[in-house]
Amino acid sequence: MRYLFLAIILLTVLAAGVYVYLGGNRSPQVALETTAAPLYLAGQPYHGKVTGDAFGQLFRQAKDAQARLGGDLANLYLNDPETAHDTIQAFIGLALADTTQRLPASFRYRLVPPGQRVVAARLAGVSYLLAPNKLYPAALEAIKTQKLTQRGNFYLERFGANDASEVWIGVK
Predict the structure, then answer these.
(1) From CA 161, how far away is CA 166, in angstroms rounded?
(2) pTM of the predicted structure, to 2 decimals
(3) Least confident interval from 68-77, 81-90, 142-151, 152-161
(4) pLDDT at 136
């Protein structure tokens, strides 16, 4: 019994250490902004269940394309999966500096025009595995606190170098 208690304490300390190592103790910076420049996305559209195999495959293809093209991993969600009963409409891919690069056969460009009013939540030094679970609640809390009206068709995730992550949620 004594060894079981010791094992539980050791596993708890190990789990806490991994969480801190991945940046889990950091808090995001949140701001209301209007985007100044266009954002060029290269990727593939998706419409279907979040739990579908094709959804995960698009993320793997984007990661493979990132190795060749550079840029940040970026995902544009055009609906809220919670209100759409776990069905999502998205564009999964990369954020690139311009549209001059030759894309893989299944990829295409998509423009996010400037002038988007968004609540932007940003984190640095946090693994992309933990970042969404910290960024979305912070951005949604800012929307609620500032009494803004959420635009239900614009959610952008961006995961860059050095574990820099951000989420934009569109507001009116």
Answers:
(1) 12
(2) 0.80
(3) 81-90
(4) 87
CATH T-level assignment (fold) for domain 28-171: Multidrug-efflux Transporter 1 Regulator Bmrr; Chain A (3.20.80)
**pLDDT tens digit sequence for 116-136:** 999 999 988 776 666 778 888
Containing 166, the helix (H) or strand (E) segment is strand 165-171
Name all contacts of 65-72 with Cβ < 8 Å and 24+ positions apart: 65/93, 65/94, 65/103, 65/104, 65/107, 66/94, 68/104, 69/42, 69/94, 69/96, 69/101, 69/103, 70/94, 70/96, 71/42, 71/95, 71/96, 71/97, 72/158, 72/159, 72/160, 72/161
In the numeric block, which tokens belong to residue 88? 């999502």
User: Which residue stretches of 47-123 are H helix?
Assistant: 53-69
